[in-house]
Every structure is written in C-alpha cells, then in structure tokens.
Design a protein that fits this description.
The protein is an alpha/beta fold and 266 residues long. The chain is 35% helix and 18% strand. A 6-stranded parallel sheet has the order 7-8-6-9-10-11, with helices on both faces. A 5-stranded mixed sheet has the order 1-5-4-3-2, covered by helices on one side. 40% of the residues are buried.
C-alpha cells in the first residue's frame, strides 16, 4: 500500500478513530491474523463477539499497526491498544473502499485476463514482457474474490509498473462489481465462455484497449456497442493485438504478437 496515511484511510472508509496509536503509515494490509506483520493494517472480518476478542488479542500481540473493525461500544477494549483502532459499520465494505482509493492512486496499466485455461500461460507471457519495465503484481483467480482482490490491490507499491488480474469463472459471477474495484485499462479474453465476460467492455476507458479471439467474433457481437476503447481481433492481423497494447505498455507490437504464439484459436 502507498500514498494512504491514517487520515486518508479514515476518510476513504468513512471510519471513526477510536484510538490513535502511534502508527500513521501502513505498508501491508491483511485479514488473516497469521499474516499480520509489525505495522500491518488488519481488517477484522469476523462477526462473533467472542472470536473478535481473541483475534484482536492476537493481532495486537503480533504488533499490528492498526485494526479496522465493527465494534459496539461494549466491545471496545478497556485498555488503550498499541495501535490505531478504526471503527466502521462494515469491515468488508471498508476494505473494498480502501482498495478503490488505492487503485485511484495507481497510475500504471491494469490488465484483466479472462477466458480458457490458456489465460494462465498468457499471464506469464505478459508478466515476462512487462517485467522488462519493472515490477509487476499479479492477481490469481480466487474462491473469495470480494476479499482477495481488494487485498491484492492494496499490495500495490509505487515501484509496480503493471497489475495483471486473472479472472476465472468464480470472479465472473460478480464481475461488474470486481471490474469497478480494479478499474482495468486493458482486457484480453482468450476464449468466450459466458456472457459475464462482456461486462468488462463497459469498464474499459477510451484510452485503453481490448483483445478478443477472432473465433469468438459472433459470440461477442451483442456487446460490442458497449466498447469505447480500441479493439483488436487476434488472428485477423499479425500484430493487431500488439498495436492495442503498445501505446502504454512499452514493448513493440510484434513482440506481443510473437509471444502469444498459438494461444488463441484461429
């Protein structure tokens, strides 16, 4: 996480500062007690009062820099905790709001990948190409994307030069919401599998780009009117897909096309 001090965090998640603690900057964010490091910002997603107490005790023992939790007045600690304690109505929503604030600060490309099994290979190809410019952060499909994706967005650092987001069938069940979280600049869909993939189209900015499989032209036709960005059909022109990405991603179109090889059906 970068660019979000304690005051900005409180504004982003609309929280109330119950205790200030001594930490105003947090470099890691987590929601599992065992992941807490010294100075971490921890989101307490547990709802049962007894479990909350045990978790709070553990994360303070691990020297968390701050905790975001839904606590009633009677649940507040009786002694001053060692870190900041921010009270919110809904910690999960607060986590997602903070992720949006972090995404708004990230000025490098965010690329969404969807499709068949070959999207994993495509992710590694893009990662290799993009790492010539600097660090690349990747999100892999998860069974609980409402938590996993915000946490990965909050793992972004100033040194990252791109964010690759791989969406599987699980994510596509709530795709519109997840696209609003990660705010993609580019998209690649290697193979049509469901109409939810087309939710991506309306979230791509005018200066962004989309690459689709030429074999899926008919399947995607009903949603193409939602597009505002450049569109390339991979397989129709040797470097068409690369042309879409070359503007911001910093490598030659032919490098992209050559690297993709036979990933797309023709």
């Amino acid at each position: 996480m970068f660019g979000l001090s304690l005051g900005k965090i409180i504004l982003a998640i609309r929280g109330d500062l119950a205790y200030a603690g001594g930490c105003t900057d947090f470099f890691t964010v987590c929601s599992e007690p065992q992941q807490v490091e010294e100075g971490s910002l921890f989101f307490l997603l547990e709802e049962e009062t007894e479990k909350k107490e045990a978790i709070l005790h553990e994360v303070w023992q691990r020297k968390a820099g701050g905790v975001v939790a839904a606590l009633r007045p009677e649940e507040l600690p009786t002694t001053v905790p060692p870190g900041a304690l921010i009270v919110v109505a809904d910690p999960l929503r607060a986590l997602q709001q903070l992720a949006v604030a972090q995404r708004n600060l990230f000025q490098e490309p965010v690329i969404v990948l969807a499709g068949g099994a070959e999207k994993k290979e495509l992710k590694e190809i893009l990662r290799t190409l993009l790492e010539t410019r600097g660090a690349v952060l990747c999100y892999e499909e998860s069974s609980y994307p409402e938590v996993a994706l915000p946490l990965q967005i909050l793992a972004l650092r100033r040194e990252h030069r791109a964010f690759l987001v791989e969406f599987g069938e699980q994510e596509l069940g709530s795709s519109d919401f997840l696209f609003r979280l990660c705010q993609p600049d580019y998209g690649v869909i290697t193979q049509f599998s469901c109409a939810a993939q087309a939710d991506l189209f309306a979230h791509l900015p005018r200066k962004g780009g989309l690459v689709l499989n030429k074999a899926d032209r008919k399947a995607f036709r009903p949603w193409l009117s939602n597009l505002r960005c450049s569109l390339a059909w991979f397989g129709s022109t040797a470097d068409a897909a690369g042309q879409v990405f070359s503007r911001q991603l910093g490598f030659k179109p032919e490098e992209f096309a050559a690297a993709l090889g036979g990933l797309f059906r023709h």
